[in-house]
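agent> Task received from the user: take the single chain below, predict its 3D structure, and emit structure tokens. No templates, no multimer pairing.
agent> Plan: (1) validate residues, (2) run structure prediction, (3) serialize to tokens, (4) report one or two observations.
agent> Step 1 OK, no nonstandard residues flagged.
tool_call: predict_structure(input=
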Amino acid sequence: MQRSIPAGNFFFVPEDREQEREDLRAVLRLPAGRRTFRRLLAAGNVMGVSFGRDERGTEYNEGIRAVGLWLATKLEAAAPGELARLMQDSGEDRQAANAAGAKADGRRGREEIP
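)
tool_result: status=success, residues=114
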């Protein structure tokens, strides 16, 4: 059964699951691609909660989170384990940034606190 294409879809790409997976793997091989995926996953609040100040805020946040979860699912299907590696990259970059900031401010890093 063939699916119809919505008329308002201005970013049409023919559906080909294997091509989609290969495209995702190709982008994951690039440092800039990995950073971009991390930014998108962070913006989607994939590992967070969606509660907002009111019902509409929560619904809006959940809509954004749904897109992030969609991306996370696509990444994991294309390259199993890569989502965890992206999280690890993020943690390492956060530690390096914190250490650099502490050094610039003349503070000691957490590992140095007795």
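agent> Step 4: summary for the user.
The chain has one domain: 18-99.
agent> Done.
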